[in-house]
Specification:
about 0% strand, about 70% helix, 5 helices, mainly alpha
């Protein structure tokens, strides 16, 4: 399984269970709501800086989101 697919799968899982709005994550990660939508749909993956901010906001590890750990 490629890492971008794993990111998309786990990002969507985190969004589902955290009940946060995409707009809140966008603000926290300094990206547009469209970027968050693109991440959800697997159209793109975040930069390292944005990934860090998303992880901090969702309180998950980058390893988890990238599929490197469970």
């Amino acid at each position: 399984m490629n890492s971008s697919f794993k990111f998309t799968e786990r990002f969507n899982e985190c969004l589902k269970y955290s009940n946060v709005k995409q707009s809140d994550i966008a603000v926290a990660a300094n990206v547009s709501k469209q970027c968050i939508s693109d991440y959800k749909l697997g159209r793109s993956i975040p930069s390292v800086e944005t990934l860090f901010l998303i992880c901090k906001f969702l309180d998950v590890s980058a390893d988890y989101l990238l599929g490197l750990s469970d």
